[in-house]
Write a structure and sequence with these properties.
- The protein has five helices and 13 strands.
- It is mostly beta strands.
- It has a single domain, classed as Outer membrane protein (Lipocalin).
- The chain has a twelve-stranded antiparallel beta barrel.
- It is globular, with a radius of gyration of 20 Å.
- The two termini are 36 Å apart.
Length: 331
């Protein structure tokens, strides 16, 4: 591992370790905070989808607010009965050229872009079926502050200065709606007290950032399998859950998943919606494959997944691969 990667990795692990002391210091519980960090440094790269951050707060309201109950009961296809939960998220994503040292990236490469957004999340769980609906508002372009964020991190970690941000997409407001349904079967008891389960899912997104239909599945194997799916991920990654169940004892599980998408719109490949901009010819079918491990202790969950995303545009030199680190804390 080179010195730059070692410094950046050490910084990341130090941050995760510092956050992990939260459960010990928390008095009582008002909800669950999930923090997600996706970055290609785990694959020793720095290109295209290079960084994603997400923070999701799910209150422990009982009963939930009246608006959440009304919306959940009115939505077609949502279970008529079941536990209703809601949450609020803040996220940021960053996209760069394949070679960040170039002031003017060559034709045929996706544009530089940043995306800053907030979301309202609504979920209904009835024991065997989970439905999730997310409304997202945000902005793409210089207002998302991706250039300043990447240059700051690269400066403090001694990484190469990214030079192509003058070519990034212009400011554009974003609006999106995503829906996801997953089905949970009975966990299978295996030799040695371990368990295995299989959870298929299907859904889609509609908006000026992402428009797609998706389907896939998640496999889990471990000592305890709480009712959640795999840990939370940044859109458009494989679906996960910001709501989970974890006891006071130490437990673990391994997970693997596949999510395939038929893509009609990807702003970070197609380019700006309302103005002329850089863009590339995207591939209509994309898949994410992930494999990881989740550790739970004293109500907290820490997970890591390695993700491989198939080529998203014509003449893309390599598939995208990155790591996803997720920490969930009861607070």
């Amino acid at each position: 591992m080179d010195s730059t990667l070692a410094r950046r990795t050490g910084y990341a692990l130090g941050l995760a370790a510092a956050l992990a002391v939260g459960p010990a210091a928390a008095a009582g519980r008002d909800g669950t905070l999930s923090l997600v960090w996706e970055n290609d440094l785990f694959s020793q790269k720095d290109q295209h989808y290079t960084n994603g951050l997400l923070a999701l707060w799910v209150p422990d309201d009982a009963p939930p607010p009246a608006w959440a109950l009304r919306v959940a009961r009115l939505l077609p296809g949502f279970p008529v009965t079941g536990e209703v939960r809601h949450g609020y998220a803040l996220g940021h994503a960053m996209f760069t050229a394949n070679d960040i040292s170039l002031v003017e990236p060559p034709p045929g490469e996706p544009p530089y872009a940043g995306w800053l957004y907030g979301s309202v999340w609504l979920g209904v769980w009835n024991g065997r079926q989970a439905d999730q609906l997310t409304l997202t508002l945000g902005v793409v372009g210089p207002a998302a502050l991706a250039e300043q964020g990447q240059k700051f991190v690269h400066k403090i970690t001694g990484s190469e200065d990214p030079r192509g941000w003058d070519t990034q997409l212009e400011n554009e407001p974003t609006l999106g709606l995503t829906y996801q349904r997953s089905w949970r079967g009975e966990a299978v008891e295996l030799q040695g007290g371990k368990r295995f389960d299989f959870t298929p899912h299907a859904g889609g997104a509609l908006g000026n950032v992402y428009t797609y239909a998706n389907a896939g599945f998640t496999l889990r194997y471990g000592s305890q399998l709480p009712r959640d799916d795999a840990p939370l991920r940044v859109q458009p990654g494989p679906p996960g859950a910001g709501l989970y169940a974890a006891g006071d004892d130490f437990d673990w599980y391994l997970f693997a998943g596949v999510d395939g998408r038929a893509v009609a719109r990807n702003l970070f490949l197609d380019g700006s919606t309302f103005e002329d901009s850089r863009g590339v010819d995207k591939k209509p079918l994309v898949a994410d494959l992930q494999i990881g491990v989740a550790l739970t202790w004293r109500g907290a969950r820490l997970s890591y997944a390695q993700v491989l995303r198939t080529r998203e545009y014509d003449h893309q030199p390599d598939p995208t691969d990155f790591g996803a680190l997720t920490l969930s804390l009861p607070l």
